[in-house]
Amino acid sequence: MRGILASSIGVTCAAALALPLAPPATAAAARTAPTADAATRAAVTAQPDVPGSTQSLPLRTLTHDRASGAAVLGLAPRAVRHFSLLGVVWDDPAAELHGRVQVRTRAAGAGAWTGWQDVETHYADHGADPGSAEAASGRVRGATAPLWVGESDGVEIRVQPEPGAHGADDSPAEPPAGLRLELVDPGTAAPPAGDAADQAADEGVDQAADEAVDEGVDEAVDGPRTGVMSAEATAASAANDGLAPLGATGIPALTAEQTRQELLTLRGSELTEQQRAKPYIGPRPAIVTRRGWGADESLRERQFVYTGKVKAAFVHHTASGNTYSCSQTPSLVRGFYRYHVRSLGWRDIGYNFLVDKCGRIYEGRAGGVAKPVKGAHTFGFNTNTTGIAVIGSYGSTKPSSSAVKAIARLTAWKLGLHGMNPRAKTYLTSGGGNLYRKGKKVRLNVISGHRDGFNTACPGGKLYRKLGTARSTAARYQGR
């Protein structure tokens, strides 16, 4: 995703952005009364815990850029309810935000503010295909990428105009209408099994886990959770029927032979005699289900939408930063889910799968991990594909070996269900975008990066350069 040049801001702007957390008051009042910040903080923290919520704060004019005269929008420092993920949204999904978005946050309870962090502004390359029912719902909004900041109770934001960005009359480009800051509290949920292994991988001890999968050893997963399931939760879990019990928090790994038998059960009637005799498919990896990461199934649309088959996998990064531990991954996934559905207006989380830096795989959009669920991940190429997002930002940071191997494991299995060779190329028909016109047949790698289907830097240069390794490893897992 493209880098953005910062605009110069005058002394007036700098002063405005350095506002104290409490509003101006007389010296006497400041000595005799608690600050507004203290009062606000007490009010919001006194409220009962919320099982996931979104605060939406309209952005205001702070000052004007000295060079262009364009408005600098944002919010002065303020106390808010606890949140862990943020992003900026606006009304028109076709509009672009020509500017630099920077935020700083205050750690909950600690009182320490972070330095300024950039929010990735280009997110239009994600989403449902043009003309699809999801894109035409009337609920979809433009947005930045989400940024994970950890549990916080204070925020400050500024949106600086981009130098050289002009409107039709050569005046400074106006920001999109309806700019607002979304603060997402992902809520709480019981963590899935495997925390000890995740922690070891988080610390760089991932060799044993890699070797276990290479040898086809089953990975432990939780059994079904107790408690009454809603109709939506039951439907989402039932979509994985045959892979795990109803209500299971994880789908266990299978050996190569077990996976081949599963393939014959799932798709045997569609296979040729040669494919039945020697199917090329990798061992099924362990997958944390939506119930495992704590999805609130009431947020999404009830119906599942499928495509014909899975001919290719697009690899993404979430561009949400790398300052997370693997024990926090379920919270991140719940945050992305809420941001995609409540803030962006999508029918469900956009990705079909998510992978954390410990190599753990998470079910994304509902409908069944073995089925060709249509996602909203690669604008123009969501038909006959699956979207895999590695959690983090990989423009200048290398992905972990565990994450790359997880991509290989997942694609060896998922593509193998549809007879696709991870090292091959295939033809996809564009649904429209900034690289290929609608209806154009495009020859792409069966495992492609997001940038192959849209003019974007996603999945980051460091991750993109690892896709060759993922292709060859996936082919090896398939026995090719």
From TrEMBL:
Belongs to the N-acetylmuramoyl-L-alanine amidase 2 family. The keyword Methyltransferase does not apply. It holds the Pfam family Amidase_2. Residues 299-460 form the N-acetylmuramoyl-L-alanine amidase domain. Residues 1-27 form the signal peptide. CDD domains: PGRP (cd06583). Residues 184-199 have a biased composition (Low complexity). It comes from the Bacteria. It comes from Streptomyces griseoloalbus. Coiled coil: none annotated. This is Peptidoglycan recognition protein. Residues 285-433 form the Peptidoglycan recognition protein family domain. Residues 159-212 are annotated as: Disordered. InterPro entries: Amidase/PGRP_sf, Amidase_domain, PGRP, PGRP_domain_met/bac. PANTHER family: PEPTIDOGLYCAN RECOGNITION PROTEIN, PEPTIDOGLYCAN-RECOGNITION PROTEIN LC-RELATED. Residues 200-212 have a biased composition (Acidic residues). SMART domains: Ami_2 (SM00644), PGRP (SM00701). Keywords: Signal. Gene3D superfamilies: Peptidoglycan recognition protein-like.
